[in-house]
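Researcher: Let's try something more involved. This one mixes different molecule types, so please make sure each is placed in the same coordinate frame as the others.
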Amino acid sequence: MAKKDDFFKMGAQETVIGHTVKLKGNLKSQHDIVIDGELTGDIDSESTVTIGHGAIVSANIKAKNVVISGNLEGDIDAEVSVEITQTGKVLGNIKAASLAIGAGAFFEGQSSMKGTKEPPFKTVTKVQNKDNDIKPFFE
Amino acid sequence: MYYYIINPSAGNGKINKIQEKLKGVLSNLGIAGEFVKSTGPGDIPKLTEIGIKKGYSTIVAIGGDSTANEVLNYMPNDKTAFGIIPVGKTNILASSLGIAGWMEACQILAARKTHRVNIGKITTNEGNRYFINKIAIGLEAEIRKNFPAAPKQIVSKVRHNLGILKNSKSFNPFSMRFEIDKSIKGDFKGVNIHITNVSFQKGDQAFMISLQENVPKAEKIQFIKTGDLSYLSDHSSTLYGNHIYLKSSNISVAADDQYIGTTPAEIMVADKRIRIIVGSIV
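Model: All components are placed in one shared frame. Result:
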């Protein structure tokens, strides 16, 4: 993981890395970052990071939202959401408040939810059965 | 104390048609001054130096981007203000400073709202050059080299624009190895690289680096009529930085629409700032 000062600060608008571009280094931006090419390095964005279909990225990502339709090897720390679309492949751990994985997507790693102290299913909901016997819905 | 440098060939000689009216407007606004005309290549730098030696507080370029850039290159510091009255074929610089046309430019000069800006410096094998707006590398620079100015006559103009189209179609993509702020290393394959001075805008970075992978199909008939080169700005990548090093060799380079040489090239923020009279910063 890169040190805070190692990051290359990007400009006042969206940063886009096209199909024919290969980059090595760390990116930091207050704005969206879209990667359709290749990147080796870490990414820090206060907005949305999008890894496009066919992109090859080897990076740890810290962002508000992350959408992956390409290939990512690295960990994701998202303030809000992570979406792996049906063409997306992620090899790494994900921390996010919300995680969506499309049918056909590949994800190998651990995921943990942000902003919740315990998983919602621990909040036990009880239902009444026919015999008026109270049983927990989730154990 | 205003000193106006006129490029009589700018905008296919548009200035000659509006010159008297322009002088009248400037006079009514109380900002009439000395008017000088360039007579050929290399004249604008000399005229700029004369204006500065004479102690004028404001030097104004009357022409397009290339005229403005020539004057700019000889502005020594931010003590003398620099203004533009856009009458050229391309007035991108004026437009980025919130100056829409020559009439509005006169009002803006009279209001004299100045803004100190960073300018760019590019170093190639041919030497150093300052720029205020944009560096083009690749196809656009080739076009600037091979087709420096659009002719006035319709037949010649059509031939000129057809030549640009042919040049665009036959242009082979090039590979470029680059480095940004000594921390990002990159490789790119495409037809154009544009490095635009965005220090006018809010943000940490002085330059926007735009990369174009392919030449899109231009609307042939429309292009032959207008010669509009906006199809060269169909970028696929956008990055930002303060110090860019273009390592690969022998790719054409243009500064503010003028061919200046070939890569390798180093682009950085110049150690001098200039004071520009602006409308509103875009």
